[in-house]
Amino acid sequence: MYDVIIIGAGPAGMTAALYASRSNLSVLMIERGAPGGQMNNTAEVENYPGFDSIMGPELSQKMFENVEKFGTENAYGIVQEIKDHGDYKEVLTEDKSYQAKTIIVATGCVHRKLGVAGEEQFAGRGVSYCAVCDGAFFRNKRLLVVGGGDSAVEEAIYLTRFASEVVIVHRRDELRAQKIIQDRAFANEKISFIWDSVVEEIVGNDMVVTGAKIRNVKTDEVHEEPANGLFIYVGLEPLTEPFKNSGITNEAGWIETDHEMRTSIPGVYAIGDAREKGLRQITTAVGEGGIAGQQVYKYIEDNK
Ligand code: FAD
Ligand code: NAP
Fold this sequence. Notes:
about 300 residues, alpha/beta, FAD/NAD(P)-binding domain, about 25% helix
């Protein structure tokens, strides 16, 4: 029986582990991939205090080394379900069952798919959701980036390190991204924009992407835009399927909590990008991790 099981080892989960283990609680952190979460798919992080700029995977590594110092146990596993047995909770992975007095859910979210023809067919053959993973394959190539938020614009800027040209395709005539990121993109000579337009189909030959059919939403005109690759950044979906039956998610799948990160089940907390909230950032994830790491200590003391 652990004091707390943390599900997910992104910045939120790792910070919760740091706080809980430094309070001398027994902590198990279950992760289905590498520690770091979305930070592993992020090129440069420029808004994490203390670092002018740091590569996402390096920040992941530093956080993990920090957590390891204080005795958190780590397990590989894909969590399928949680069960509330009142005075204790159960976490089920594909092949194991773990028990704890409390649970912290920190499973984050993933990139939404565009849902157009060719997207699945050309995944890994020109269609990508991760510039830091795949950008280097596109040296001196022409790329399309779909979306107008922080991810699309920031990753488009990163892709100009490799690509000869990056064209951002956005469904409106105004970006959603933060002003400072927008300004950098507008000033970058390798970046151009196709406004008021959506990708209708990703096209290619037998092997790789050769372009995309793009429709102007105002005129309904469709044209084929040539490209060697297409990076998709059209928003996020919560990774909360395992918690749906427990009733802690809302209609859209995000987990609702109060300001102490408590869900509707006593002893079950949720933090980071999986929560219903406005600002999904590393700083907010670590802040919530600190709160939940401290809250589980209080919960266990109060329920002794
Ligand atoms: P995540 O980082 O998503 O981590 C969740 C972890 O849970 C993952 O490791 C996942 O494998 C694991 N998990 C999920 N489901 C299960 C399961 N069933 N069982 C076991 N494990 C599971 N933020 C910034 O502050 N600055 C930036 O510059 C910045 N750039 C970004 C660039 C991109 C391209 C993206 C996508 C995001 C960026 N963000 C940035 C946002 C930031 O990365 C996230 O807000 C942050 O990582 C959220 O942390 P988290 O711990 O809540 O979730
Ligand atoms: P986002 O902010 O939700 O933006 C998604 C973008 O995709 C929007 O521009 C949206 O258009 C567009 N879009 C959505 N569905 C579409 C569709 N079907 N077809 C075409 N376009 C579509 O998502 P995000 O950019 O991934 O950012 C997610 C979170 O991470 C945000 O909170 C963001 O601040 C954070 N983040 C922060 C940083 C940073 O701080 N440096 C970097 C990356 C991400 P509309 O604008 O018309 O809605």
